[in-house]
Specification:
The chain has 290 residues and is of the alpha/beta class. The protein has a single domain, classed as Ribonuclease Z/Hydroxyacylglutathione hydrolase-like (Metallo-beta-lactamase, Chain A). Helices cover 24% and strands 25% of the residues. The protein has a six-stranded mixed beta sheet, covered by helices on one side. The N and C termini lie far apart (51 Å).
Length: 290
């Protein structure tokens, strides 16, 4: 019997699914894509969602080894530093985060103090890298397209894809963020489709298709290849790229993109407090958007 256990936590304000995966035999766990509560209108931060995860892990008496980011999210602030402070573990992201940092350093006009080498994170990972989780092995697949730094974490028969694929009745990630590319996303999804048909696929968000009453976040490779409404085994690269580019041109900028990205490319750490002890986020005017 496998020692792998997967516990999802759904954050409904941003429709994000965070996962706690564990080797229950050895009581070691990893947290994937945690969320920090953030109210944009008041710029207020809270840790209600992260505290639920902390309580759960402490109740299980597990030790946190890794806090895994599938990419630098544009729709929520990561709770990685807060979780690390309370539970330990190393913060991990794809190695191409350096590309994302270079792009957004310019957008936010960050000074020389902001380094674009990824060293804000504890560990950078790339294709075929592996991480130990008790007796389990976490294997990294580089799956760019939504962003250059997107990765999928494969653990036994379970793959955690972030935003690359949503549920089959909803589709795929957008590709219009800086560094995103629909053709690249197509190739990344083909890589996921090459996994065994029975592989369980866990998505990072669910926005609940109009045809479905309940939120959901788990599918299989076979289900995605057969029924994904935007990209399945019968979809040509040309058709997908044309569809994705046309669709993305109509999408609004995510509400939390500006606060989220500047924090998330810094591994979740807020900007250095100013001389009054307060943190300040930047909002570049007429810089991002259609």
């Amino acid at each position: 019997m496998t020692a792998l256990t997967i516990t999802p936590f759904f954050e409904e304000q941003t429709f994000t699914v965070c996962y706690v995966v564990a080797d229950k035999k050895n009581k070691q766990c990893a947290i994937i894509d945690p969320v920090l509560d953030f109210d944009f209108s008041s710029a207020t931060i809270a840790t209600t969602f992260a505290d639920k995860i902390i309580t759960f892990i402490n109740e299980q008496q597990w030790q946190c080894q890794w806090i895994l980011e599938t990419h630098a999210h544009a729709d929520h602030l990561t709770a990685a530093p807060y979780l690390q402070e309370n539970l330990g573990g190393k913060i991990v992201i794809g190695a191409e985060i350096t590309q994302v940092q270079k792009t957004f350093k310019t957008v936010f006009n960050f000074g020389h103090h902001f380094k674009v080498n990824g060293l804000q994170f504890d560990k950078l990972v790339d294709e075929n890298d592996s991480l130990a989780l008790g007796d389990l092995t976490i294997t990294v697949l580089h799956t760019p397209g939504h962003t250059p730094a997107c990765v999928t974490y494969l653990i036994e028969d379970a793959a955690f894809m972030g935003d690359t694929l949503f549920m089959p009745d909803y589709g795929t990630a957008r590709c219009d963020f800086p560094g995103g590319d629909a053709e690249t996303l197509y190739q990344s999804i083909q890589k996921i489709f090459q996994l065994p048909d029975e592989t369980r696929l866990f998505t990072g968000h669910d926005y609940k298709s109009p045809t479905r009453n309940e939120f959901a976040w788990q599918s299989t490779v076979a289900e995605q290849k057969t029924t994904n409404i935007q990209l399945n085994r019968n979809t040509s690269k040309e058709d997908f790229v044309n569809f994705r580019n046309e669709r993305d041109s109509t999408l609004a900028v995510p509400k939390l993109l500006l606060p989220a990205v500047q924090v998330n490319i810094n591994a979740g750490y807020l900007p250095t407090p100013e001389n009054n002890g307060k943190h300040y986020l930047k909002l570049p005017v007429n810089t991002v958007g259609k």
